[in-house]
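Re-running the complex after MR caught last week's input typo. The corrected sequence lines follow. Everything else is unchanged.
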Amino acid sequence: MNRRDHRLDRIRQAALTIGLGAAGLAIFLAIWTLASLKLDNDVLLPPPADVLTTYGELIADGSLAGDVKASIVRVFAGFFAAASLAVPLALVLAYSRILRALVMPLIALIRPIPPIAWIPLAILWMGLGDPPSYFITAIAAFFPIFINAFAGGTSLVEEHVNAARSLGASPLALLTTVMLPSALPSIATGLRIGLGQAWMAVVTAELVAAQSGLGYMIQISRLSLETSRVLVGMTVIGLLGALMIGSLGVLERRVIVPWHYPR
Amino acid sequence: MLSIRNIGKTYPNGTAALREITLDVGAGEIVAVVGGSGSGKSTLLRLISGLDHPTSGTIDVDGTRIVAPHPAVGIVFQEPRLLPWLTVEGNVGFGLAHLSRPERRHRVHQALKRVGLADYALRWPRELSGGQSQRVAIARALVARPSVILLDEPFSALDAFTRVELQDHLLEIWADTRPTLVLVTHDIEEAVALASRVVVLRPFPGRVAQVSDVKLARPRDRLSHSFDDEKRAILSALDTTLARRAPPAA
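Corrected-run output:
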């Protein structure tokens, strides 16, 4: 197969993948429409067309943008706080046996506590508003990032260290040119999972502890029985979550660890 | 030249890997080290490379005592051990961080050209075949212009055809600048094809059993009778070392 055929084949494959995805979505929307027609109850299940109209209204009056912005700010605040703590801590523990023995049991005990169980404590400590949401998203993002970065740190291949040493690498050069890069694929995986967890957690936190954001918007709309607004909130959460994780995946393959993926 | 004096290596758990090894390798000489498993071949190379320290004895290269990795000593490992997160160019230039960027690029390019991979500078290691990877590893060892290059079973993971090709290629490179080569191998044919002297080690702990000159003119004909004779001589020396640790007959 020559190069041109190969490219055509890849384009055909991509078109098929996109086409099937769109078909799946269309089938889902059709079933949704049929179900809502059958139910004929806009509080239980409004049809997709109604949800789309509500999208238009909420975009026009700017409230959707405000809620999206509030949620995204919280996710990234918590995510960055978690990442800047989890990655260095995990790497230090990966390389220090004593610190590992000191800290790991604690981590093992805290890790199974779901982020949602921290909400009461977060509200008691920080009141309602942004801080408890930052805290909850940070907790949610912390563990996947930590666990993966730790695995990355411990996956160091001794042969790589020897090769670098035989080429005269100093201890600092070993850290920056061998230890960090070898942990990077796992760190990137942890960041991707951590961002997803943070995004899910922010909605949970906002359902209970905030006065803005997509979670809050869903909760308020439920109380006022505006189910199409609830569905707008839910679908926006799905869309933005997929977008964030997808772009982090692209960033991972193209920029962070391109050497880890086949071209 | 490389001067090894009475070196011994005993690991902290009490295992003696090497005992009383003394060996001089002249500038531009190719010495092959052969021996059964447990004869400490690879340990010997690690000590010469400065990656590990002998428990006794000394190692000098051109009058400099080796106590840590030194630019005068390059090493090519059994597996290429390229750093997967650096391009071919980055791997070859890894040890040249002290040079200016243009100088480094120039040296890297020269080394890659020497191993026939000038067009592969921007590839990732995972995009290379086994033979190409090992060529890059050789370029990485060459680029610092060491006076001694250590090769630890460098071609053993390659298929027979690629192995012979790379052996010939190594000889061409050697003929250019005549570095001292110390080659650890378990391939007797490789030892006879490349080396001017063959050191046979005896195991448990590793000691020198025999040192013999390979009296064949270069280029060497692998199919000649004299080549076979040299191979047979080394094999019989190896057999003697191995028989010493065979269990007594019941």
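None of the earlier attempt is carried over here. Chain A has a mean pLDDT of 92. The interface with chain B takes residues 159-160, 162-169, 173, 177-178, 181-182, 184, 257-260, 262-263 of chain A (CB under 8 Å).
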